[in-house]
Amino acid sequence: MMRSSSHALPLGVLTALLLAHFCSGIKWLTLSNSPIALHMNNSQQCKLLPNLVPTQTQLCRTHLEIIKTIVQAAREVKKTCQKTFSDMRWNCSSIEISSDSPKYRPDLDRGTREAAFVYALSSATIIHSLSRACGLGEITGCTCAKRPDEAPGPDFRWGGCGDNMAYGTPLGTKFVDAPMKLKRSGSHANKLMHLHNSEVGRQVLRRSVELKCKCHGVSGSCSVRTCWKSFQDLKDIAMDLKSRYLSATKVVHRPMGTRKQLVPKDIDIRPVRDNELVYLHSSPDFCTKNEKLGSVGTQDRQCNKTSVGSDSCDLMCCGRGYNPYTEKLVERCHCKYHWCCYVTCKKCERTVERYVCK
């Protein structure tokens, strides 16, 4: 435990937090490098966190208990993004930031569609994490969501413990958007883009709310159901955002009336739709390594020889060809159920052929 009188953080924690440059709305993701057991027990410690904008510092002081959840959210963004794009040339490698070089690759700094996706996912994830942690009792002084005002259906009653969106939404929104509302935080076009995409992430999150239920009754008859409202899993929200990434709209910053706004570049003059991701600059093809453009290339990436999608060897390897290799897998097989109540299995070995891009 830390001594509150010293107002000092452990060296490892402080080193990780020093990486957190909040001048950009997603730089809080560098907190994923922090130890999961992050404890801050004194509001004075908030001023030890560098590069926090005043609004974020105040949120830290008044909601000290959320820091651990924010660290978990940062890790969740990284894991979810990489899994969602594992079958594409850009596989969210941009979020991989080494501890000795806390700098994002240019593909996230230049206002690309990749940046659009990461901002939207980050915005959704922090609210998702705060709301769920609150409902699970992981945040001090916060509990399950209030029961919905609407009457329950004829086949269920309100109960359970729903995600506390009333807690997570305003707090997460304020934390994520605060840096983009500063005059010194980059160009006006970039700020408008990031604020728009962050709101798209929140919109997708709100649309993901669904009814979850638990059955009650004799022998699981489900004669009575208790239901509550909760967000879908992040993987489903990320897939929704991925489809918007694929159809994202390129925009330009031009005068519209008395002020400059983002408008679609190649479409007849119309406002930007509030449910579409937008970007300012085209992305590289991510085929070859190019540090200036933020591309790590696809050399040595695994591809699928039989696929016709984005993970196919033709598309993933950009026509360079691929190399085969074999891998031995040990799996459970010939499983047998024994009454009552256990299963025994044997171990079987098989050889599979894999392919990696040249």
From TrEMBL:
Q: Which UniProt keywords apply?
A: Developmental protein, Disulfide bond, Extracellular matrix, Glycoprotein, Lipoprotein, Secreted, Signal, Wnt signaling pathway
**GO biological process terms, semicolon-separated:** animal organ development; canonical Wnt signaling pathway; cell fate commitment; neuron differentiation
Q: Which Gene3D superfamilies did the record assign? A: 3.30.2460.20
Q: Which InterPro entries match?
A: Wnt, Wnt_C, Wnt_CS
Asked if the Swiss-Prot or TrEMBL record annotates the protein with the keyword Disulfide bond, the reply is yes
Q: Which residues form the signal peptide?
A: 1-25
Gene Ontology cellular component list: extracellular space
Give this protein's Gene Ontology molecular function annotations. cytokine activity; frizzled binding
Q: Where in the cell is it found?
A: Secreted, Extracellular space, Extracellular matrix
Family of this protein = Belongs to the Wnt family.
Query: What does the record give as the function of this protein?
Result: Ligand for members of the frizzled family of seven transmembrane receptors.
What is the protein name stated in its UniProt record?
Answer: Protein Wnt
Tell me which species this is from. Austrofundulus limnaeus
